[in-house]
Amino acid sequence: MDASALPCIYAILKNDKRFDIYEPDEDGSNMLHHACSEGHLDLVTLLLLDHRFHPQIADEAGCRALHLAAFAGHEKVVRLLLADPRVDPFAKDHFNIPAIDYARASPNSKGIAKIFEEHCLSLDT
In this structure, what CATH number is given to the domain that contains residue 68? Predict the structure, then answer.
């Protein structure tokens, strides 16, 4: 799909009264969670502009968008999320696991733990 069509599609879905795009699914995941997990950078960028898709909202397991993008190995989405001042890179899920450990545990996340480390070091300076 052409990424330039996303704002139009998003506006249509947002205004369609037949369903609520903000309603989480049975696992507590919302559209932002799914977009991050699947690596849809353009959609994540668009959703972050909507205050109702706050990146710190957790699903039923306590995973935030950053946990899901890190585990799935979507480097560009992780970078985008880490650049958002609302994102807490140290946030933990309900099992007390931070997103960086999701990146370390995933076979898909080569190099993402290093992105976290560099980002967290930049916070100290």
Answer: 1.25.40.20
